[in-house]
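Same chain as my last thread, 264 residues:
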Amino acid sequence: MHPALHSWRDDLPSVLIRLLAYLAAAALLSIAAAQYFQSKNGITAIDPADKRAWIDIEKPFPAFALAIPEAADAPSSYAIRRHAEGNGRKDILTLGDADGIAPYLSVEIYRPGTEIDSFAAPETEIATSAKPLGPVNVVRSDEPLESKFGPLTIVTFATSVGTPRQCLAFVRAYPDPRLQISGWFCQGGENGGTLVERSTLSCALDRLTLLSAGSEPKVGALFAQAELQRTYCGQRDTILAPTPKYKVLWKALETRPEPRRIGR
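reply #2:
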């Protein structure tokens, strides 16, 4: 047999073995790459961070009302949010412009589900819920504010987003039924605005009423008891109850004369 032919035949098995090894390695790399990218896509699809914790109800059916006729021409809104997993519910009522010098009142009634074990500290609650306003200088007051819902924990803060304003915030939590009432009353003005008077906040919350408790009789009992504690903005008589506080806030701010300055 020719020597050259003998050499080629001897080398053929080793060449085939190397070729098969290369093909096997390439196949393994392809499978590994496919598994890697498929896993990445799967993780992204179920990433909890992509899920919205709270979902806005498109057509909310109001369960509460904040009746302040003196501010009838002020913008108002009612929103209901449901927790996607815990089924907690937040009813949010607002009155006034969210970004303006005029007064802005926001009230939230939170009935938690399984999404939390306990309510957050008042200052933490306000800092979180008022995040769109950019709350700064958040300070908890040592003195509670009396209201028809009992003593309210008071927290003050200034806004850093939009029109500079000073805000008087409040929090009141109940263990049974598990319910929390919170919110804030803001207004602007010179030098970043001035705080709303405590009595005005209490008077505004005097107007917060229940429309429907649904299947939660304990919530109905809570608001019924609150109505017994209602002061009608300082007077027990509903006919004689004064309303100037609201007119000052929603009617007179734009026409209020500038304060006198010493030396003018």
